[in-house]
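hiii so um. not sure if this is the right channel but i have a protein structure encoded as tokens and i wanna go backwards to a sequence. like what aa goes where. can anyone help
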């Protein structure tokens, strides 16, 4: 049984750790605030006092943090993952981050005899809890095949996308598509309210047809009820869309829908709503 070090035990990471333990994996964890992970420690996760300790002597090291700068800090330096993982270990970054950073991690890891995969996910906290995440993986095919059992404990749709960075590029495509969908379902609710429709009846009518989507099923009820608790933070979605916009610009591509939705979310963040869930985009329309 592979030993696992898991770094970043937050909204997404905590249920992922639980699902790995349910499959019988010995999981060691590190997070910035120990007090927030006492529950999973009581459930059997082994606490480590540092990134280095969490990476040392593990077969697989998984990272699930917030921003590219967090990933960079974890992987590089004397106390980082690459300096402390054993040769033959596999480092799997499941954070949504820069494809360029994933390529850099892959290159530096290979120099040390460590395999690296970029494996961002989609499905939000509900998918993490249910173990039904969609996982998009970049790196060497052989390494992907070796880690199939790990991925199967976490997700129900697991796809090898190609070489290093390709998992992140696929996640960027996912976030580009998502940006338009989440904004459009909020627009539909705003339109229904303004024209005097019963919103619940409207949603029941259109959700089973061509307009149906995961966002329609999972986030529109939250928009309607006013539940803005984060399954996916606005600030993290802004980070993802910003990376996608930068990558698109780098290949000479203009993405007007993404750019508009990114501007909407940045306005909400400027109003102090960055820690709300992405469904809080409805507030943009409430202000009109």
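sure thing!! here u go:
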């Amino acid at each position: 049984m592979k030993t696992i070090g898991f770094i970043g035990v937050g909204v997404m990471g905590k249920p992922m750790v639980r699902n790995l333990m349910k499959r019988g994996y010995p999981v060691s964890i590190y997070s910035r605030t120990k007090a927030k992970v006492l529950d999973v420690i009581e459930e059997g996760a082994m606490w480590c006092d540092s990134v280095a300790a969490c990476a040392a002597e593990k077969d697989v090291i998984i990272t699930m943090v917030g921003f590219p700068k967090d990933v960079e800090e974890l992987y590089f330096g004397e106390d980082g993952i690459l300096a402390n993982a054993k040769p033959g270990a596999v480092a799997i970054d499941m954070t949504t981050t820069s494809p360029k950073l994933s390529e850099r991690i892959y290159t530096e890891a290979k120099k040390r005899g460590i395999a690296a995969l970029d494996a961002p996910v989609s499905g939000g906290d509900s998918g993490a809890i249910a173990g039904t995440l969609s996982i998009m993986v970049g790196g060497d095919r052989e390494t992907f095949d070796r880690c199939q059992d790990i991925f199967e404990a976490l997700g129900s749709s697991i796809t090898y996308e190609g070489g290093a960075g390709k998992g992140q590029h696929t996640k960027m495509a996912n976030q580009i598509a998502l940006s338009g969908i989440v904004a459009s379902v909020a627009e539909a609710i705003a339109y229904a309210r303004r024209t005097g429709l019963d919103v619940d009846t409207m949603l029941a009518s259109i959700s089973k047809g061509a307009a149906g989507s995961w966002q329609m099923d999972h986030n529109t009820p939250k928009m309607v009820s006013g539940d803005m608790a984060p399954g996916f933070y606005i600030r993290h979605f802004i980070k993802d869309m910003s990376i996608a916009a930068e990558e698109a610009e780098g290949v000479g591509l203009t993405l007007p829908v993404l750019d508009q939705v990114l501007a909407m979310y940045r306005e909400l963040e400027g109003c102090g709503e960055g820690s709300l869930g992405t469904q809080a985009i409805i507030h943009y329309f409430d202000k009109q």
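oh and The mean pLDDT is 96.
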